[in-house]
Amino acid sequence: MTIDIFKERGISLEKQEFDWRDLVRVPYSKLDDDAFTRVRVILMNGIESEALRFSHACARVNKPLQLQLARVRRVEQHQQTLVNWLNPPDQNVLETTIGFEQVAIEVTASVAMHEPDPYLKQVYHFGMLEDFDHLYRYAALMDRLEGKDANALTQCYTDIRAGRPTLVEHRAPEDDLREPYDRAKAAPISKLNALTIMAGEHQTHDYYMTVGPTFADPVARQLYAEIASIEEQHVTQYESIIDPYETWLEKWLLHEAAEVYNYFGCYSQESNPRIRDIWERFVQYELGHLHYVMDLFKTVEKRDPEEVLPATLPTPVKYASHRTYVRKILNQEVDLRANGTQIVPLKDDSPASIAYRDRMNATGSPSQTVAAGYTWAPGGELAMRNGKAKEVQP
Questions:
Q1: What is the mean pLDDT of residues 134-140?
Q2: CA geometry: angle 352, 354, 359, nearest 5 deg
Q3: What span, in angstroms and rounded, lies between the C-alpha atoms of 291 and 313?
Q4: Whole-angstrom Cα distance, residue 302 to residue 232?
Q5: Can you tell me the distance from the alpha carbon of 277 to that of 93, in angstroms, rounded to the nearest whole number?
Q6: Angle at 252 between CA 59 and CA 65, to 5 degrees
Q7: Is residue 86 within 8 Å of 44, Cβ to Cβ?
Q8: What confidence tier does 386 reach under pLDDT thresholds 50, 70, 90?
Q9: Buried b / exposed e across 75-114, counting CB within 10 Å, b at 16+?
Q10: Mean pLDDT of the residues in the chain
Q11: 235 and 205 in contact (C-beta within 8 Å)?
């Protein structure tokens, strides 16, 4: 099932309306709904957040497009509100954090599996193994601060175990940049993949920077500071794989296509019928935005959108457990490092990054402190000590 984005025009921009009651819907249930409903809500909030970020940046250097950008941006701001307010009020900051890391693992794994460019595929693997470790560190924090098992939220879809240790993920800036795809040669799915993962990682960085200071526990505050730093590195990595020579309108067109693509993936796999209706509505809204920008593209750049967009959307992100795939990549690539734009064996690690890492870890590493002696077990550490659960060896 897919969409012909040139034939399907969706709902026109002038007919896209909201009111305050419409913006604030009944949230999903953090325990009763499938974990992938939370994954989809978090990802789509990130996609809309990126849409607003791009739109403002574009408006600041493109006076002739400011009105058109403002019209679309108003709707997308309301879409983001509706999506983000689907998060339930009884889901605390740390529980939402677990959801963010599950997004980073499962969505990146799906993207990597269908990425046709071998270099980009390895870049996704590289970032995924770092987010995999973040889930483990935050699960340890949850166990120790709240006595809860993060698996109650991830619902057995995602392993909770160490990945590439967070303390070795700190790199010099020159080792976070990657080679971009070529806009004239790259497959459409490569462009959509890059925008999707960049949006998710940018949102994660901003979230950790906002909520980290709200913790009283000093290790928790340091852990959020440390992992927020890595997430900023991830944003640098993923934005650098996007061809910087795409025009502003070309980038806008691709952003709208990525929104259609991701809402359609959510709609086609959502198990909660109430939330599926929201995804379906927003597929139609985004098709309206896409055609609005297609018309601008033709008028302003005198180019055919078919130069940039595929006739039909590629296979959507798969919202399912990728445990077997992630374990395979973990076993094969956990020791890789970055040197310049290349992913290299451990022996070729960058001297600049080693020096930077030594400086940042000179007084210890919060990610090591929080997980010292920790191994995930069903029910948490207390259950294991009481003999109610056994340590699980993956």
A1: 98
A2: 100
A3: 15
A4: 37
A5: 27
A6: 35
A7: no
A8: low
A9: bbebbbbbbbbbbbeebeebbbbbbbbbbbbbbbbbbbee
A10: 95
A11: yes
Q: Say how far apart CA 275 and CA 281 lie, in whole Å.
A: 10
Nearest partner of 202 among 233, 181, 248, 169, judged by Cα? 233
Band the pLDDT of 27: cuts 50, 70, 90.
very high
Structure-block tokens of residue 220: 């928790």
Report the amino acid identity of residue 21: R
Instruction: Supply the pLDDT for residue 393.
Output: 44
Structure tokens at 256: 């709208």
Question: Which tens digits make up the pLDDT trace of 307-353?
Answer: 999 888 999 999 999 999 999 999 999 999 999 999 999 999 999 99
Cβ(231)–Cβ(205) under 8 Å? yes
Structure tokens that stand for 356 in this block: 């930077």
At 238, the amino acid letter reads Y
> Could you report how far apart the first and last alpha carbons of the chain are, in Å?
35
Distance of CA 107 to the CA centre of its chain: 7
What one-letter code names the amino acid at 102? Q
- Do 261 and 200 meet the contact criterion of CB atoms below 8 Å apart? no
Enter the tokens of residue 135. 């889930």
Q: Are 132 and 163 in contact (CB under 8 A)?
A: yes
Residues 132, 134, 140, CA angle at the centre, nearest 5°? Answer: 115
Q: Would you state the pLDDT for residue 127?
A: 98
Question: Which of 201, 179, 187 has the alpha carbon at shortest distance from 127?
Answer: 201
**With contact defined as beta carbons under 8 Å apart, do 38 and 99 qualify?**
yes
Q: Is the pTM of this model over 0.90?
A: yes
| Residues near 376 by beta carbon (within 8 Å), at least 6 away in sequence | 136, 139, 149, 150, 151, 160, 161, 392
Token pair of 299 as six digits? 């008028």
